[in-house]
Structure prediction request, 336 residues.
Amino acid sequence: MAAPGFSVLSGRPFQDRRRRARSPALLLVLLAVLAARPLAQERFIDVNRGIQDAGVNGPVKTVHVSGGVYVLVGGGANIVVQVGDEGVLVVDTGAAAAADSILAAIRDLSKRPIRWIVNTTLDPDHVGNNERMSNAGRTVNGNPAAIIAHEKLPIRMLKLPVPVPVSARPLNTFFGDVRDLYFNDDPIFIYRSPGHTDGDVLVHFRRADVIAAGETFLTTTYPVIDMANGGTTQGFIDGLNRILDLAVPKHLEEGGTYIVPGHGRICDEADVLEYHDMIVIVRDRIRDAITKGMTLDQIQAARLTRDYDPRYAAASGPASTAKFVEFIYRDLSAKQ
Prediction:
């Protein structure tokens, strides 16, 4: 039997999760196990994940994640919904164009009032239905559903080229690194995660063991470091480290804590580790190039992200390779 607190497979302390998934010895063991018992392993993953489609409303698909937590996909950014006897809590409100479908999907899950809304960031596909969803809900005092965010977020919303109206801005704010509340028999922790902007947060449903990561973690593209709104490369790394600290993997790194990205599929800790390592590796390559006196044009020409581009590069826009490299270059150059 392994010593208490140590992994049978790796022999390392359980808390060293960020590096464990990178061990060559562990990967060889995993490959051997999978080769020897493919059918049993497939059944184990299928039975223990338990993620199931729960409904469709127009373009919006509802997926059950764990406990009373669901994710709505197709209405802009991923929307996380927690339902229970006390009412409904919604993490991000999606794109304005999908409002009817989003609200119908929530009503299919629960007829109880929307009590709380959490904004993880300020992008329109995350907060496009703030006002309408707030007015569709009610606090226990009879007011529109409260919108929670870090205090920097409404300040940033006010300074956007098209300011978010006060009726759609979060007014229930906190100024520290974490806020907690107890709702539907689940301790919920809202952590500041200043990567995309300096007002971003992620949300951990501790009993359901689900993390709504917002723009801190994506499976679809490179991260967007919104420097105009206080975003930083290190903020992304710190936010992903927070998720890795909170998440606990299940059998052979499959399952366990579920992480819902701002965009993309439902993930577990191993997926977050890969994203984290990608950002750190690219950051270090660019930092090394800067110390050698290379210009932005020279760094772009060196294609320092070429091993990650097929997986994460968007065809154009802020998540393209060129913009991702530029964001990191300007962020690091500003700190020298």
Notes: The two ends are 51 Å apart (CA to CA). Residues 1-22, 26-49 have pLDDT under 50 and may be disordered. DSSP finds twelve helices and 13 strands in the chain.
